[in-house]
């Protein structure tokens, strides 16, 4: 069999999973390339875990197909998929040592590269920064250390694909941030294709090569963190990923790529190559960091409601004709504040 180097490691087409009363995954399609760190992100209940369980073979799809390196794996059991999995709870065996836990991953497959079991376990523990921990009892480890053991166990047989379901959700924020950097470094060192699930949009932006933003079982947008952040494809994505200000109004005219939108209290000009025409309803967004306090083609006159000091910035909550807006500032402000922005600082999300 000839293999095409550019063939995706994962390819989902029209993947759907229905339970009696719920459609957990709804016509989902995407591909994951060799060595990619791909994240499924979305709010609770949007279908992330079900998608991962389908990929791992722990559930069967109602419709659609999953191919791994071009092979249709419908009906193929988890152990025959060449996949390493880490679920939300670490699920380490408490009656086994750390070394035995990692070695458990080798019960069904030989260690790669002709290594002995002991050598492989030692290598993996070193890889996750726990060298010499073989004899430890997993109950005597911190949450972060347990999570590393779980990752080492999943990696032990040298899988072709790694699936991670919120592996850091039980850890505190600071440790999570540190471990996500370590995880990304490890993933790059091993060059292992990874599908990662999180409900934390900031984590998704920080860690992914590409991400799928899920809502009600469907992917609303698949793209690089930069593309998803700068050019959200739907109102849901615009509001879910990062702080944002979303406006809706009627297109009153256009001059090339400069589109005028009547927002009610004021008309703004937004630069976009989209095909908006007079009379269309446009949804546009402006990130809080895009506002300045003077200059600018567009100006919204707002009232400061509250200010949150975040250390590196202050987040202002402002009222603009009953709509709450967010802006960033380096000085505490109060009273009436103009928020100015240039046409190219705004993004048109959708036009109908
Ligand atoms: P969370 O972040 O809370 O884990 P999620 O995005 O991973 O959420 P899923 O666990 O995939 O979401 O669930 C998607 C939907 O499918 C939910 O409405 C859930 O209640 C439903 N669901 C999941 N598993 C089952 C099941 N075995 N039987 C019935 N409904 C299910």
Description:
- This protein is of the alpha+beta class.
- It has 2 domains: 10-238, Rossmann fold, CATH 3.40.50.300; 247-351, Nucleic acid-binding proteins (OB fold (Dihydrolipoamide Acetyltransferase, E2P)).
- 22% of the residues lie in helices and 35% in strands.
- It contains 8 helices and 19 strands.
- The chain has helices at 48-56, 98-104, 117-127, 143-155, 173-190, 201-207, 225-230, 235-240, and strands at 10-18, 23-32, 37-41, 63-68, 71-72, 83-86, 161-165, 193-198, 210-215, 218-223, 245-255, 258-262, 267-271, 281-286, 298-309, 314-320, 323-329, 336-341, 346-351.
- The protein has a 6-stranded mixed sheet with strand order 6-7-8-3-9-10, with helices on both faces.
- Helix 2 (98-104) crosses helix 3, helix 2 packs parallel to helix 4 (143-155) and helix 3 (117-127) packs across helix 4 (143-155).
- The protein is elongated, with a radius of gyration of 24 Å.
- 39% of the residues are buried.
- It binds adenosine-5'-triphosphate.
- Adenosine-5'-triphosphate binds at residues 19, 22, 24, 42, 44-50, 199.
- Adenosine-5'-triphosphate binds next to helix 1.
């Amino acid at each position: 069999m000839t293999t095409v180097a550019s063939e995706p490691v994962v390819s989902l087409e029209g993947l759907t999973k229905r339970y009696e009363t719920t459609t957990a995954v709804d016509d989902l399609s995407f591909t994951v390339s060799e060595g990619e760190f791909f994240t499924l992100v979305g709010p609770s209940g949007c279908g992330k875990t079900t998608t991962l369980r389908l990929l791992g073979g722990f559930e069967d799809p109602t419709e659609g197909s999953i191919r791994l390196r071009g092979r249709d794996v419908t009906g193929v059991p988890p152990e025959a998929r060449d996949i390493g999995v880490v679920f939300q709870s670490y699920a380490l065996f408490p009656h086994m040592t750390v070394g035995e836990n990692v070695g458990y991953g080798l019960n069904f497959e030989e260690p790669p590269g002709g290594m002995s079991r002991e050598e492989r376990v030692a290598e993996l523990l070193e890889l996750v920064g726990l060298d010499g921990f073989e004899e430890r009892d997993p109950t005597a480890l911190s949450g972060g250390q347990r999570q590393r053991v779980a990752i080492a166990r999943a990696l032990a047989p040298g899988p072709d694909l790694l699936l991670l379901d919120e592996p850091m959700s039980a850890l505190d924020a600071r440790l999570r941030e540190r471990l996500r950097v370590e995880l990304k470094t490890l993933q790059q060192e091993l060059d292992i294709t990874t599908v990662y699930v999180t409900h934390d949009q900031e984590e998704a932006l920080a860690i992914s090569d590409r991400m799928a933003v899920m809502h009600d079982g469907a992917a609303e947008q698949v793209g690089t963190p930069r593309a998803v952040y700068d050019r959200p494809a739907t109102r849901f994505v615009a509001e879910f990923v990062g702080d944002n200000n979303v406006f809706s109004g009627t297109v009153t005219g256009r001059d090339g790529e400069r589109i005028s939108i009547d927002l009610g209290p004021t008309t703004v000009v937004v630069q976009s190559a989209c095909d908006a025409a007079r009379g269309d309803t446009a949804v546009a967004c402006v990130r809080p960091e895009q506002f300045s306090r003077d200059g600018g083609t567009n100006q919204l006159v707002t009232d400061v409601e509250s200010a949150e000091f975040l250390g590196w910035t202050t987040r202002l909550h402002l009222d603009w004709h009953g709509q709450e807006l967010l802006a960033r500032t380096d000085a505490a402000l109060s009273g009436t504040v103009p928020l100015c922005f240039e046409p190219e600082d705004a993004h048109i999300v959708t036009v109908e």
